[in-house]
């Protein structure tokens, strides 16, 4: 029980320090610093329990393995950015106005999902200015 608790705390800490959606493999890499005995099976088991408890929620991007984010961070309507160079996913604040203008006559929109792709700040800096052209 004690071990389970410290594993879960380490995983929650990984989410908080990253403050972006994490894949199980990323969680393992970060949380292992606190709990060296952690393995991928334990991460999956703990995530499942955190999902059931409503602590985290899945972030599903088309054609991507599942990532997760803290429920508290997900509370507000937001979208995601996926870096094509390092495969990290980031939270975007806010939304796009005027989506309803895209709808054909007679259509009603009940929801939307927006994913932006590109390179994150770290990858853009690494690639140099020519990458942005
Ligand atoms: Zn990147
Ligand atoms: Zn939106």
Question: Which features does this protein show?
Answer:
Dna Ligase, domain 1; Arc Repressor Mutant, subunit A; alpha+beta; 3-stranded mixed beta sheet; binds zinc ion; 16% strand; two-stranded antiparallel ribbon; 5 helices; 133 residues
Structure in words:
- The chain is built from five helices and five strands; from the N terminus they run αααββαβββα.
- With 133 residues, it is of the alpha+beta class.
- It folds into two domains: 1-72, Arc Repressor Mutant, subunit A (Orthogonal Bundle), CATH 1.10.10; 76-133, Ferric-uptake regulator, C-terminal dimerisarion domain (Dna Ligase, domain 1).
- A hairpin with a 5-residue loop joins β3 and β4.
- The longest helix is centred in the N-terminal third of the chain and has 17 residues, at 2-18.
- The radius of gyration is 18 Å and the shape is globular.
- Bound molecules: zinc ion (2 copies).
- One zinc ion (ZN) binds next to loops.
Outline:
The chain has 133 residues and is of the alpha+beta class.
